[in-house]
């Protein structure tokens, strides 16, 4: 296997670094990884490579400068001093598995002056306490960085400290509920079976003990339900919490009164069981959700904490959040850009893999836009800030990813509304049961009413849909498919037509220049330079083919015409580059673009574009799964026809501009089809928005993310698995809904007739919720295509 | 039955102690990291050395 021993990435064709470890000589992708592995070996942490399910994070050869973190003003704000100690929580990028956490913990604990290290894998954060006099943050940050992990300040998004606090509180509530329920059941058991033999004094003694144990369970452990019920009452939106709180409070209150006046029955056991089971169900669901969100939150913090601003009197390090548009910032090699801006240096290379998925460094020239979150991978650069803080492309992306985690599906919202009506009906039914029993046998009124309330709790109903969607999203994310809109999966299951774009979608989109022809038959080099200068401004896939062509020229006033080409001024002359008809006059034929001034064509460029791996096979499987395929492309008929033939697609249209593509999608929808659209998200952003479900391949520009419901990392090869998952999700959702409804409808009459004791009703309700959750988890367990490792960008940490 | 008067409150007291201990453990971070401690079991002990105590300080202090 030709992959780096430390980070697991494929070895480069040239420049493989070798180092000798205990196990023999190993190959590394770069000096950074080799140094990290040698150090890990030297320090006796070889176990890291054995216990790791994954592998290390790739280590940059050049070490960033962390001196800004040592500034007292910075530290006072982020790590207040306390008796010579400082404490700080940072987010760690690159930490993907327990082995990473283990290594970080071991290594940092050995730093002199570090008093405490706590690593939180699901929260992707690290909490550190250190003695101020002995160690500076830059020292442990450097150690972290040498291992390939990057630290970020917790910025926007959920605060990891608060997050940890809420997790601890939830754990405490669960413990109180669990221990309290056990104790309360013990005394209740005695009351159930020994009631006849007991003298009233002993009975009351047991009841008071149960009261003592049950009260904290109801009011401390059950507080989330009581608070939720109060909010639902205040906003007049009856929901599950109201039902839970009513039954718990009713059981507790009635039992307390019974205890005081020495009545025949107490129901403390029902109250505590109810709280325990519900709390446990909620915790399980929450744990799955938290892991999914942690990775998204980390994305927001890829922006570095500090920036070096160039000022008349020399450079000054400032807080990145305080950057204003217009500020000039210096970024050293290996550092991450703190804001969006325009490049001032002559040129620079940037690794924008986090933003676009493109792992090759991208060359940019003076005046080009540069993006926050991209890594300056060659020489140091200077740039002028245009957007900072929450306005950067990266911050918007992160919000999108968070939105994906938080998006509440319409169908779940519907289930919520149904549940609200249901709650009112059930409260009424419980009251009716009580009244009826009061007339027949007054002593059975309360247990029957309680049983109705417990049995009718629509927890399973409310969980049915979100649980299925969460599990499916998690399973897909592990495979590199990011579901941004929660409605996309159920909708995709209903789609019968898939419209696909060609360039950059079914094909690599990274076309290589096959031939350049000057119209006058001469040397094409000068025309190539002009075309390359123009294409530097374009994000169209075809522009990538020009990335490798050096050009001394720069283009100005570049305008992009979607689907046709671009135009701009180079050396004072106006040029058009794109379809021959756009550039001048000429036949649209083959994979050719032309450079011209609008009237005459100066040169033509021919491209070759390979289909993506697995694309043809995916098309075949999709057809077999009953999906009608259609190919809409802006390209020349010859190229489109060839691909359509290879993929077995009968319906194809070439030379389609976005307006025509939209019209085609609309026509299909008008004919009664549900249309999914797969594109690259740039040329067809508007078309994607018009389809019932939009899918985009992640290698497209960042814009693709904003205009798609589902992002596929790894191209169309993932489509059949996605479709299968969507259909599976729909099936599971239906099963869950059917089960929850049947359960509630079947058991409510039994409870009303007094056939079910309250504690059994509480247990049944919980088992029903658990059944729904477990059924949904089946979706997450089967990876869509086993053995495929998700690429290391923002998706890498998405699996729960 | 009079044993109950002593034993039952004692069990409640024990319950209180258990909950207090759990709260203390949670607040001191015992349950924050549930992932790495599991790995400690499969971690191999350092190979026995002639001068085991001196050996500990030989390990590099800082990464290279």
The helix fraction of chain A, in percent, is 40-55%
The fraction of residues in strands of chain A falls at 15-25%
Say how many strands of chain B there are. 0
Order the strands across the largest sheet of chain A as they lie in space: 17-29-28-27-18-25-26
The percent of residues in helical segments of chain B reads 40-55%
CATH topology of one domain in chain A: Calcium-transporting ATPase, cytoplasmic domain N
CATH class of one domain in chain A: Alpha Beta
H/E element string of chain B? HHH
Unreliable segments of 5+ consecutive residues of chain A: 700-706, 783-800
Based on secondary structure, the structural category of chain B is mainly alpha
Oligomer class: heterodimer
What is the correct CATH architecture of one domain in chain A?
3-Layer(aba) Sandwich
- Biggest beta-sheet profile of chain B: none
Architecture overview:
The complex is a heterodimer of chains A (800) and B (64). Chain A is α+β, with helices and mostly antiparallel strands. Among the domains of chain A are: 1-60, Ribosomal Protein L24e, Chain: T (Roll); 67-153, 2-Layer Sandwich (Alpha-Beta Plaits), CATH 3.30.70.100; 306-391, Calcium-transporting ATPase, cytoplasmic transduction domain A (Distorted Sandwich), CATH 2.70.150; 512-608, Calcium-transporting ATPase, cytoplasmic domain N (3-Layer(aba) Sandwich). Chain A is 48% helix and 18% strand. Chain A has 26 helices and 29 strands. In chain A, α7 (200-221) packs parallel to α10 (268-300) and α10 packs parallel to α15. Chain A is globular. The two termini of chain A are 28 Å apart. With 64 residues, chain B is mainly alpha-helical. Chain B is built from three helices and no strands.
């Amino acid at each position: 296997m030709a992959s780096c021993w430390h980070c697991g990435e494929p070895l480069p064709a040239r420049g493989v670094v070798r180092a000798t470890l205990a196990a023999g000589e190993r190959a590394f992708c770069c000096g950074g990884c080799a140094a990290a592995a040698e150090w890990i070996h030297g320090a006796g942490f070889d176990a890291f490579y054995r216990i790791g399910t994954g592998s290390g994070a790739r280590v940059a050869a050049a070490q960033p400068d962390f001196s800004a973190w040592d500034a007292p003003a910075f530290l006072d704000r982020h790590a207040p001093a306390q008796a010579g100690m400082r404490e700080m929580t940072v987010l760690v990028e690159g930490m993907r598995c327990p082995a990473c956490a283990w290594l970080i913990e071991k290594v940092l604990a050995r730093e002199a002056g570090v008093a405490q290290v706590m690593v939180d894998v699901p929260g992707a954060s690290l909490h550190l306490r250190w003695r101020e006099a002995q160690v500076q943050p830059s020292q442990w940050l450097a150690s972290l960085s040498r291992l390939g992990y990057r630290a970020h300040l917790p910025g926007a998004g959920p605060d990891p400290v608060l997050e940890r606090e809420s997790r601890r509180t939830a754990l405490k509530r669960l413990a109180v509920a669990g221990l309290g329920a056990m104790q309360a059941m013990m005394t209740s058991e005695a009351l159930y079976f020994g009631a006849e033999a007991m003298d009233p004094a002993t009975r009351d003694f047991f009841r008071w003990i149960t009261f003592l144990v049950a009260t904290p369970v109801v009011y401390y452990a059950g507080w989330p339900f009581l608070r939720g019920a109060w909010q639902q009452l205040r906003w007049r939106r009856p929901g599950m919490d109201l039902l839970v709180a009513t039954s718990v409070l009713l059981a507790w209150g009635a039992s307390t009164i019974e205890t005081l006046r020495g009545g025949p029955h107490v129901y403390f056991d029902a109250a505590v069981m109810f709280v325990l089971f519900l709390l446990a169900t909620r915790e399980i669901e929450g744990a799955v959700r938290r892991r999914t969100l942690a990775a998204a939150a980390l994305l927001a913090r890829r922006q570095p904490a500090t920036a070096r601003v160039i000022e008349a009197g020399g450079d000054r390090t400032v807080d990145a959040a305080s950057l204003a548009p217009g500020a000039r910032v210096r970024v050293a090699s290996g550092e991450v850009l703190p804001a969006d801006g325009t490049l001032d240096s002559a040129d620079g290379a940037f690794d924008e893999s986090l933003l676009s998925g493109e792992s090759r460094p991208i060359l940019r020239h003076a005046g080009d836009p540069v993006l926050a979150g991209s890594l300056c991978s060659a020489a140091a650069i200077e740039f002028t800030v245009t957007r900072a803080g929450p306005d950067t492309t990266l911050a918007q992306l992160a919000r999108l990813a968070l939105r994906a985690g938080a998006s509440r599906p319409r169908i779940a919202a519907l289930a919520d509304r149904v549940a609200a009506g249901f709650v009112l009906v059930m409260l009424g039914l419980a009251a009716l049961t009580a009244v009826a029993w009061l007339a027949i046998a007054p002593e059975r009124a309360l247990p029957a009413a309680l049983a109705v309330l417990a049995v009718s709790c629509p927890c399973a109903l409310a969980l049915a849909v979100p649980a299925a969607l969460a599990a499916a999203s998690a399973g897909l994310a592990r495979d590199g498919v990011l579901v941004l809109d929660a409605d996309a999966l159920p909708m995709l299951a209903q789609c019968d037509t898939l419209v696909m774009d060609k360039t950059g979608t079914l094909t690599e989109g990274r076309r290589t220049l096959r031939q350049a022809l000057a119209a006058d038959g001469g040397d094409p080099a000068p025309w190539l330079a002009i075309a390359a200068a123009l294409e530097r401004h374009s994000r169209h896939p075809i522009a990538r083919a020009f990335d490798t062509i050096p050009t001394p020229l720069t283009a100005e006033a570049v305008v992009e015409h979607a689907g046709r080409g671009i135009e701009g001024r180079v050396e004072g002359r106006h040029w058009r580059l794109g379809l021959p008809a756009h550039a001048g006059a000429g036949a649209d034929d083959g994979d050719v673009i032309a450079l011209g001034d609008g009237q005459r064509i100066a040169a033509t460029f021919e491209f070759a574009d390979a289909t993506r791996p697995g694309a043809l096979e995916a098309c075949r499987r999709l057809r077999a799964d009953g999906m009608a395929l259609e190919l809409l492309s802006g390209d020349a008929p010859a190229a489109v026809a060839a691909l359509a033939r290879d993929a077995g697609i009968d319906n194809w249209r070439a030379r389609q501009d976005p307006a025509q593509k939209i019209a085609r999608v609309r026509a299909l929808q008008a004919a009664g089809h549900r249309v999914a659209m797969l594109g690259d998200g740039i040329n067809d952003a508007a078309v994607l928005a018009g389809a019932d479900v939009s899918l985009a391949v992640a290698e497209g520009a960042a814009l693709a993310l904003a205009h798609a419901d589902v992002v596929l990392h790894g191209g169309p090869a993932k489509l059949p698995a996605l479709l299968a998952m969507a259909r599976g999700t729909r099936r599971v959702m239906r099963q869950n809904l059917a089960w929850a409804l049947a359960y509630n409808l079947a058991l409510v009459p039994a409870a009303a007739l007094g056939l079910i004791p309250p504690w059994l009703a509480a247990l049944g309700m919980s088992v029903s919720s658990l059944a729904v959750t477990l059924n949904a988890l089946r979706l997450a367990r089967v990876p869509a295509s086993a053995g495929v490792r998700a690429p290391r960008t923002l998706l890498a940490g998405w699996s729960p | 039955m009079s044993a109950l008067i002593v034993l039952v409150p004692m069990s409640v007291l024990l319950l209180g102690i258990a909950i207090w201990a759990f709260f203390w453990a949670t607040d001191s971070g015992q349950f924050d990291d549930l992932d790495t401690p599991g790995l400690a079991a499969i971690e191999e002990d350092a190979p026995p050395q002639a001068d085991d105590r001196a050996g500990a300080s030989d390990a590099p202090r800082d990464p290279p």
